[in-house]
C-alpha cells in the first residue's frame, strides 16, 4: 500500500553526513502508536525523536520546548483534535512542518488539515521505510501529495461547500500576475520546479521565485495548499 503517494525522494536522501538530524515530535493519544513510531524513527541516524505528546492540547507547549522540524500529528484525539492543533501551529512564526496521521485514505479531517497547512498525511499502517522518507521529504520543504491523491481525497470526502470555495479560490488567484497564475496551476498539477521550468520556458531559479511570490500573495504555507486552491478553482483538469 502506497500510503504516501507521490514520494520518490532523490537517491541517498537523508543519508548525508554532517547534517543535523531532523527533529520530530510525535503526537498521538495511543501510547502504542507513539512507541512504534519512536522505534521506527529512532533507528534512523538522521532523525531524532525529541518529544511526545498525547493530545493536541499539549502541542503548543511541546513545540516551544522541543523546537521540532516535523510534527507527526494524530487527527482524532479526545481533548483537542489534530486539525485544531495544526491550525494553531501554522499560525506561529516559523512553524514546524506537520504530517497528519490517520487510519483512513478519505478522511474529512485529513482534507481540512491539508487546507490548514499540513504538508501531507500518513496512514498509521504505513511501512516504516515510507514513514522515514516522508519525514525527510517534508523536512526539506517538499510536498508529499500527488495531484491524484489530492483529487481522490476531494472526490471521496463529502464536500458541500465546493461552489463557495471555487469562487473564493478564483478571487484569491486574481491577486496573481498571469505568469504567477500559470506557475500556481502547474504546481496544482503536481509539476516539479524543473518540469515547470521546461514547460513555461523559464529558469528553475525564476520558478522558485514565482512560487515564493505565489505563497506570499495567497498567504499560504506550502505547495500542497497551492495545489488545493488550484483544484478548488477548477484549473487543474486536463
UniProtKB/TrEMBL annotation:
GO terms for biological process: phosphorelay signal transduction system; regulation of DNA-templated transcription. InterPro entries: CheY-like_superfamily (IPR011006), NreC/VraR/RcsB-like_REC (IPR058245), Sig_transdc_resp-reg_C-effctor (IPR016032), Sig_transdc_resp-reg_receiver (IPR001789), Tscrpt_reg_LuxR_C (IPR000792), WalR-like (IPR039420). One of its GO terms (molecular function) is DNA binding. Keywords: DNA-binding, Phosphoprotein, Transcription, Transcription regulation. The modification 4-aspartylphosphate is found at residue 74. Residues 23-139 form the Response regulatory domain. Residues 1-21 are annotated as: Disordered. It comes from the Bacteria. Residues 169-234 form the HTH luxR-type domain. Signal peptide: none annotated. The keyword Transcription applies. PANTHER family: TRANSCRIPTIONAL REGULATORY PROTEIN NARL-RELATED, TWO-COMPONENT RESPONSE REGULATOR. This is DNA-binding response regulator. It comes from Phytohabitans suffuscus.
Amino acid at each position: 500500500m502506497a500510503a504516501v503517494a507521490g514520494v520518490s525522494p532523490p537517491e541517498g536522501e537523508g543519508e548525508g553526513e554532517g547534517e543535523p538530524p531532523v527533529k520530530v515530535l510525535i503526537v498521538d493519544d495511543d501510547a502504542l502508536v507513539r512507541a512504534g513510531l519512536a522505534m521506527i524513527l529512532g533507528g534512523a541516524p538522521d532523525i531524532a525523536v525529541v518529544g511526545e505528546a498525547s493530545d493536541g492540547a499539549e502541542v503548543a507547549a511541546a513545540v516551544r520546548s522541543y523546537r521540532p522540524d516535523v510534527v507527526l500529528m494524530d487527527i482524532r484525539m479526545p481533548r483537542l483534535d489534530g486539525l485544531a492543533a495544526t491550525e494553531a501551529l501554522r499560525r506561529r512564526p516559523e512553524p514546524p512542518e506537520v504530517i497528519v496521521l490517520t487510519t483512513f485514505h478519505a478522511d474529512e479531517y485529513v482534507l481540512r488539515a491539508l487546507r490548514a497547512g499540513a504538508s501531507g498525511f500518513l496512514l498509521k499502517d504505513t511501512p516504516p521505510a515510507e514513514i522515514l522518507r516522508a519525514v525527510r521529504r517534508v523536512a526539506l520543504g517538499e510536498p508529499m501529495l500527488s495531484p491524484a491523491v489530492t483529487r481522490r481525497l476531494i472526490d471521496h470526502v463529502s464536500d458541500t461547500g465546493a461552489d463557495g470555495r471555487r469562487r473564493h479560490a478564483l478571487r484569491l488567484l486574481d491577486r496573481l500576475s498571469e505568469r504567477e497564475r500559470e506557475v500556481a496551476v502547474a504546481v496544482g498539477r503536481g509539476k516539479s520546479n524543473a518540469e515547470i521550468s521546461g514547460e513555461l520556458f523559464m529558469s528553475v531559479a525564476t520558478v522558485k521565485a514565482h512560487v515564493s511570490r505565489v505563497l506570499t500573495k495567497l498567504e499560504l504555507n506550502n505547495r500542497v495548499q497551492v495545489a488545493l486552491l488550484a483544484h478548488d478553482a477548477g484549473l487543474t483538469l486536463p
